[in-house]
Specification:
The chain is α/β, with parallel strands linked by helices and about 180 residues long. It has helices at about 15-30, 45-55, 65-70, 85-95, 105-120, 140-150, 170-180; strands at about 1-5, 35, 60-65, 80-85, 100, 130, 160-165. About 45% of the residues lie in helices and about 20% in strands. The longest helix is centred in the N-terminal third of the chain and has 16 residues, at about 15-30. The protein is globular.
Length: about 180
C-alpha cells in the first residue's frame, strides 16, 4: 500500500514529534508499505524517510524542481519524482496514495491535507484521511469540522472518512480497517 504522509521540513521543538515520526516510518517499512512524501531530507520529512529506509521499506519523494535546486532533496530514497511546482506535486502525491496521513506540520501540511479532506468529503477520493493528532495538535481543526456540521455546512456523512488519531496503533487500525471494509 502507498501511504502518503504530509509533514514539515522542520523538526519542531517537541522531541516527541521525532520519536513518533520514526515509529510511523518504521511501521511503514516493516509492513511492506511504500512511503509517498515531499522528498526532502530536512526535518521531520527526512527523519520519516530515513526510518522507512532503515526498516527496508520503499520511499518515493515528490518534489518541485525549485526545492531540488535549493538542495533539499534526499538522494538516498528509492525514487524521486520531480514536479514543476507545488500544484503538480500535490496532484501527484494524491494520485500515488492509497491512504493519507497529516502529521503535525506547518501551513504547507495544512494546505495539502485540506485538499485531501475536500476530495474525500466529495467522494472524489476513496481513501482514509488521517490527522495524526499527536499531543492534541489538530484539536482546533477537529472542533472546526464539528462546527461545520453544527452549522449545517457539512455533514457526518461527508466527513466519515476523516479520522483524528492519537497514536500509531490507531493509524494501523484505521488503515487496515478501511481496506478490510472496502474489500468486502
Amino acid at each position: 500500500m502507498n501511504i502518503t504522509v504530509y509533514l514539515g521540513a522542520n523538526t519542531g521543538n517537541d522531541p516527541r514529534l521525532s520519536e513518533a515520526v520514526k515509529e510511523l516510518g518504521t511501521w511503514i517499512g516493516q509492513n511492506g508499505h511504500t512511503l509517498i512524501y515531499g522528498g526532502s531530507k530536512c526535518g521531520l520529512m527526512g527523519e520519516l524517510a530515513e526510518s522507512v529506509l532503515n526498516a527496508k521499506g520503499k520511499v518515493i519523494g515528490v518534489e518541485p524542481q525549485f526545492f531540488i535546486d535549493a538542495g533539499f532533496d534526499y538522494s538516498e530514497i528509492t525514487q524521486l519524482i520531480v514536479t514543476k511546482d507545488m500544484t503538480e506535486r500535490k496532484t501527484k502525491m494524491i494520485e500515488l496514495g492509497d491512504a493519507f496521513i497529516a502529521y503535525p506540520g506547518g501551513t504547507g501540511t495544512l494546505e495539502e491535507i485540506a485538499e485531501v479532506m475536500s476530495k474525500v468529503s466529495l467522494k472524489h477520493l476513496n481513501a482514509p484521511c488521517i490527522l495524526y493528532n499527536l499531543n492534541g495538535y489538530y484539536d482546533d481543526l477537529k472542533n472546526l469540522l464539528n462546527k461545520m456540521i453544527t452549522y449545517d455546512l457539512s455533514s457526518k456523512d461527508k466527513q466519515e472518512d476523516i479520522y483524528f488519531v492519537e497514536n500509531l496503533s490507531e493509524i494501523v487500525k484505521v488503515v487496515e480497517g478501511y481496506y478490510e471494509s472496502t474489500s468486502k
